[in-house]
Write a structure and sequence with these properties.
Elements: E1 2-6, H1 9-19, E2 23-25, E3 28-31, E4 34-38, E5 44-46, H2 49-52, E6 73-75, H3 79-94, E7 97-101, H4 106-118, E8 125-127, H5 135-143, E9 146-147, H6 152-180, H7 193-208, E10 214-222, E11 225-229, H8 237-248, E12 252-264, H9 272-283, H10 287-299, H11 318-327, H12 332-339, H13 374-389, E13 395-406, E14 409-420, H14 437-446, E15 458-459, E16 462-469, E17 476-477, H15 478-486, H16 495-501, H17 509-521, E18 525-528, E19 531-534, H18 536-544, H19 548-551, H20 553-567, H21 573-593, H22 608-618, H23 620-624, E20 640-642, E21 646-649, H24 652-655, E22 658-660, E23 662-663, E24 666-667, H25 670-679, E25 685-686, E26 697-698, E27 700-702, E28 709-711
Parallel strand pairs: 1-4, 1-7, 7-8
Antiparallel strand pairs: 2-3, 3-4, 5-6, 8-9, 10-11, 10-16, 11-14, 12-13, 12-15, 13-14, 17-19, 18-19, 20-21, 21-22, 23-24, 25-26, 27-28
């Protein structure tokens, strides 16, 4: 018997169906010589300090730094996890071969290896590595199973990352909490979290200390075209008025007129960060929500593997492109022109040297079904249109640059016209993104139609003064913060240069959303509209940390680079661990011996406390509506949070627990959802209209083993 272990029950069902393992058992499926079982994401975790010695349960500076000789793993303490692990353990013992069908990425590899390690697996292990969950992709993957040894470095990198995060997170958090926290609150420090917060705090300080200044610019209109004086901004109105008087005394003269035809390159295919950036800019979706939507689309087989950091496709995919395009029936108006000629095979799209484990996110040949949520439809639309647009011709443009003078004062203007829209055709019917005032002014000038000018021509003109104010740096949004994390704080607009710097970014595409959510959860940052604002607590924390190693995006980017080198076999995982141990040891010594600082925590306003108490005592229902106070029933480590379409674990990426507002076609009330989560079942309900067995009424039950929902 061959044992397949998937990362979650839904994926296991897809694999079991393809393999013919259709007989359901307790915790697995069986048939055709296969057993297919699953984890729930992480079943195992690194041991906690007190697992190495009971005295380490106490947060005390005398025990720091905590450096285990050998890092051990343990099961996550949860009855459902323990039961499922026993199933896996028994099957591992009985099978002839294990096929690791975990998520095809670093985290997925780590999850499965830890489970097999805990189960003392000594059987041969193969690896299923696929980029989509379509039947064709799964069959192809099983025809080309790899040896687990091919992915050893991927596991070593994931393990080194986990150990590095443990070493720094556990020691630095205890160190700063005990030294500066005054037993009032935990000061959370993390390898990726802290430099990300440092970027936000730095930006906050730049904005807070910015002094707005007024300025004046000289402009003039000649033949209905606005020209700007090519001189420094004027600091006083008096100088501007003198300049205006001078302009009125002199004629306008054209000095040079140049038209250059150029091309606008097609946008790149999406990697995860690019998709999160676009979804935040266009729809205001958080990075975490976008990750959840794209993960759902992947599990529904509509898109390829999402946790990727490349914008290229492998060359072997080229023959399949036509079939994918033909299957995208709702976009046929845009696709029809492409199918009249051979699909172009551009190096900007197909490049094996830019693809490692996975290619960019693209649609599969499985078109989206009508039961997608609104958010999933919008995310799919972003991916579909981007995929279509890369095969269109480049956009041809005309850039016009005109230089002129009035007396001795130089003037200039420029304009851009689209000659052939090319790839822009795909987006022709979409509204333009909202821009700030400065961008609007700039774009209006760029887009102004410029007539034919003759060098040497001159004539009267209409000069005027434009008054403006200097603007502070912009607050980070999730979109701009994700880009800054991708390039370790460097502001880079050029896509090719940004691609080169990805290896030195902060965190990985799959973890960045969780880092941002952690900063919200710790109350180190808050959101006002789309802007991310560092709170006073977040600012104080960064000010308290004197060691630049903990705060530097560039240095954290270097660690990420080393982790990637471990993944490619060019760097030793043990060397990375030793470097972090040295750093943590030196940091501990420096902080303990250094001076203490007073850390002032923001207190709740006294008048709010009685209100909360009264509310809790008088109305249990109102208290129940606070989902953030309810512990996740699956991992029992995090709290729940309410999104737009579901209630789920705040650490959804690792835990995976989620209950949709709509189940089997019926939208549940908050109370019904609460009953399902807290009691494991609802009262008898009616109005189900999409149950597979056409059951219209009954009681919803939440299994405490696999956390699936059934209707009986």
């Amino acid at each position: 018997m061959k044992l397949c272990i998937a990362e979650k029950p839904s994926v296991a069902r897809d694999i079991a169906k393809v393999l013919g393992a259709t007989m359901p058992k307790q915790g697995y499926m069986e048939g055709n010589g296969y057993c297919v079982t699953w984890t729930f994401g992480h079943l195992c975790t690194l041991k906690e300090p007190h697992d190495y010695g009971p005295e380490l349960k106490s947060w005390n500076l005398i025990f720091l730094p905590i450096i285990p000789k050998n890092f051990g793993i343990k099961l996550i303490p949860n009855k459902g996890v323990e039961n499922q692990f026993r199933v896996i353990e028994k099957l591992v013992e009985e099978c002839e071969e294990v096929i690791n069908c975990g998520d095809a990425g670093q985290e997925g590899e780590l999850i499965q290896r830890w489970v097999l390690q805990k189960a003392k697996c000594d059987k041969p292990v193969k690896r299923l590595w696929i980029s989509s969950l379509t039947e064709e992709s799964i069959k192809e993957g099983f025809d080309k199973l790899k040896s687990a040894d091919d992915y050893k470095n991927l596991y070593l990198a994931g393990n080194a990352r986990a150990i590095g995060d443990w070493l720094l997170g556990i020691n630095a958090t205890r160190l700063f909490t005990k030294k500066f926290g005054g037993n009032k609150a935990v000061l959370s420090i993390g390898r990726v979290q802290t430099p990300t917060l440092a970027m936000l705090v730095q930006r906050q300080k730049e904005i807070d200390s910015f002094n707005t200044e007024e300025y004046w610019e000289l402009k003039t209109k000649y033949r209905d075209v606005v020209f700007n004086a090519a001189i420094d901004r004027l600091k006083t109105l008096d100088r501007a008025e003198k300049g205006l008087s001078y302009l009125k005394e002199n004629l306008f003269e054209i000095v040079s007129f140049e038209i250059k035809e150029g091309k606008e390159k097609n946008p790149r295919l999406f990697d995860l960060t690019g998709l999160q950036v676009e979804a935040n800019k266009k729809y205001g979706y958080s990075a975490e929500n976008t990750l959840n939507y794209i993960q759902s689309l992947y599990e529904k087989k509509h898109v390829t593997y999402p946790r990727v950091d490349t914008t290229y496709l492998s060359e072997s995919l080229y023959p399949k492109i036509g079939g994918i395009l033909r299957s995208m029936s709702i976009y046929q108006e845009l696709i029809a022109p492409l199918l009249q000629e051979p699909i172009p095979k551009s190096k900007a799209v197909f490049d094996d040297t830019k693809v490692t484990d996975h290619h960019a996110i693209i649609p599969t040949e499985v078109p989206p079904s009508s039961n997608l949520t609104r958010e999933e439809k919008l995310i799919y639309d972003l991916i579909a249109k981007r995929f279509i647009s890369v095969f269109y011709p480049e956009c041809k443009i005309s850039n016009t640059l005109v230089e002129a003078k009035v007396g001795t004062i130089p003037f200039k203007t420029s304009g851009k016209q689209i000659l052939e829209p090319g790839w822009r055709t795909v987006y022709a019917k979409e509204p333009k993104d909202k821009e700030d005032t400065n961008d609007k002014d700039k774009n209006a000038e760029e887009e102004q139609l410029i007539p034919e000018f003759t060098v040497g021509e001159s004539g009267p003109h209409d000069p005027f003064i434009h008054q403006g104010k200097t603007s502070p740096p912009k607050y980070y949004t999730e979109a701009t913060l994700l880009r800054a994390m991708e390039t370790a704080g460097k502001q880079i607009d050029d896509e090719e240069l940004r691609e080169m710097l990805k290896n030195n970014g902060i965190g990985r595409p799959s973890t960045r959303a969780n880092i941002i959510e952690t900063l919200f959860k710790r109350k180190y940052i808050e959101k006002k509209r789309k802007n991310l604002i560092a709170t006073q607590t977040g600012i104080q924390l960064i000010d308290t940390i004197e060691d630049e190693l903990l705060k530097s995006p560039e240095l954290t980017g270097e660690w990420e680079f080393k982790l990637r080198k471990i993944e490619s076999g060019e760097y030793e995982a043990n060397t990375f661990k030793e470097e972090l141990i040295r750093m943590v040891t030196e940091l501990t010594k420096k902080v303990i011996e250094g001076k203490g600082k007073s850390f002032v925590f923001e207190e709740e306003k006294p008048k709010e406390k009685p209100k909360e108490k009264k509310k809790a005592e008088s109305s249990p229902k109102e208290e129940a509506k606070e989902w953030g106070q309810i512990q996740c029933p699956k991992c029992k480590q995090n709290h729940l949070m309410k999104g737009k379409t579901a209630v789920g674990c705040s650490d959804f990426k690792n835990c995976g627990f989620k209950v949709s507002f709509e189940i089997f076609g019926k939208k549940l009330t908050d109370k019904q959802l609460m009953d399902l989560v807290l009691k494991g079942k609802t009262s008898k309900l009616k109005g189900f209209n999409s149950h597979p067995e056409n059951t219209a009424e009954g009681t919803l039950h939440l299994s405490n083993e696999d956390f699936q929902i059934s209707l009986t």
